[in-house]
Amino acid sequence: MPRPATDPAKAAQIKALRQQAGRWLKAAREAAGMTQAELAEKVGLRYYTFVSQVESGLGRLPIETQAAWATALGLDPGEFARTLLRYYEPELFRLLFETDSAQGRATA
């Protein structure tokens, strides 16, 4: 089955959110006092270019690597994953973590 065409507005939103995530990751790396190469080594990457791609918003961290990145940056893995989820999957984040108003409607 062919994939539906990507909505240009949605694509722009995804790009902007990935760039915001990249800026957040870069700030976390810099706060930890590491270069891209040092972070890449700590998380077991062969090349630092993946760190560069993620920080520029061209890529995203796979879920299975997020705990290693959090640990390398000295951050709580749960908070790290929640922050990335807010950028990478905003609707899922809303469903999981912004349920107070939704629960109030469901029980009313």
TrEMBL record:
Transmembrane segments: none annotated. CDD domains: HTH_XRE. One of its GO terms (molecular function) is DNA binding. Residues 25-80 form the HTH cro/C1-type domain. InterPro entries: Cro/C1-type_HTH, Lambda_DNA-bd_dom_sf. Pfam families: HTH_3. This is Transcriptional regulator, Cro/CI family.
